[in-house]
Amino acid sequence: MNDAGTPRHPEQSDPRCQSAEPADTGRSGATPIVSGDGTRVLTAGGMPGGQGTPLVPSPVFASTYVLHGEPAGPYQYGRLTNPTWTAWEAALADLEGGPAIAFASGIAAVTAVLATTLRPGDTMLMASDCYYATRRLAEEFLSDFGVVTRWAPTGPEMAAQVAGARLVWIESPSNPGLDVCDIAELARRCRDEGALLAVDNTTATPLGQQPLLLGADFSVASDTKAMTGHSDIVLGHVACRTGELAERIRGWRNSTGAIPGPFETWLAHRSLATLDLRLARQADNARELAAMLAAHPAVRRVRYPWLPSDPAYPLAVRQMRRPGGLVSFELAGAAEAEAFLGALRLVTVATSFGGVHSTAERRARWGGDDVPPGFIRFSCGCEDAADLLADVEQALARLR
Ligand SMILES: Cc1ncc(COP(=O)(O)O)c(C=O)c1O
Asked: What GO molecular functions are on record for this protein (predicted)?
């Protein structure tokens, strides 16, 4: 643990807003050239290599610190700060382009933005097709606190409804419909109207898209998905356009205790090193799968923003840095979709997405999304494309 830093006393500086500095690696010399995503994920948060320090930051589990006399140093109590978070948040901040705060889950990160920006009597404009648990927060909790939510589908219709809103909430590409919203255009509109813009960037990851650089105030993510990509942890984060917004978010985390476990945080940091490789393979698979599905007689409609025939293609190519691994498509009905899923041998039927294993599910089974009964969200993993396509082909063939 790096114990250097500005001495702080809980009564002198509000510990709810305390942020720790990344560990000093002791490395000196010229700054390395970092241009490609493969290098970016390996060097995000700073170069390793200080004498006697681990190459990859280790988990630090302590929750109670020895403090004699005046507390000094950035780490004093485990609910407020932890060196493992510091290293992970420094990496996130580099990739996002703004200060980042890690949370226990994606929905804890979502909640932090909603709770710190909205007050009774405020209006929020939220994408009507965003993640259902986010919508549920607005419908079932915020409404009780006097926040009014206005709804509009992901896309150009949102900009027309910004006036009067305190916060605008979008996902792009949206989950599960994979619609895309012009973030820069919406951010301009929000600035003109005095609204804050939050983008749930879960499906894209910060390698796929940097909402803060497009003008958003918050970039929010469930790091349970492609960001960490092994289907073995639940985690989230918020990145902010300004230090002031970040302090409010950090203060919320300190007050509510929605903190990530050090081990999960370390696993996430460890997984970050392969994000570029995983995304590349997942996107290659998604592109091939989407093209195959689009030509298949049993498939009614395919959505993949990087398929040239997709309505979102021109905007996705202009706005995003690179493609992702999610594809959605529609079969004739619930029975056909269930038969297809049941016939898959390599692909696992599971909820969640973004992992190295391909997974698929019929979203209407949950009842929370406004999708047709035969709608399937397919998350491409890192299998070989030929094997993945062969599995999908044989499962579709059963429908004839
Ligand atoms: C777009 C999106 N945002 C937020 C969440 C919530 O994340 P978590 O499950 O990590 O709490 C999810 C979860 O599926 C999601 O898909």
From this structure: cystathionine gamma-lyase activity; pyridoxal phosphate binding
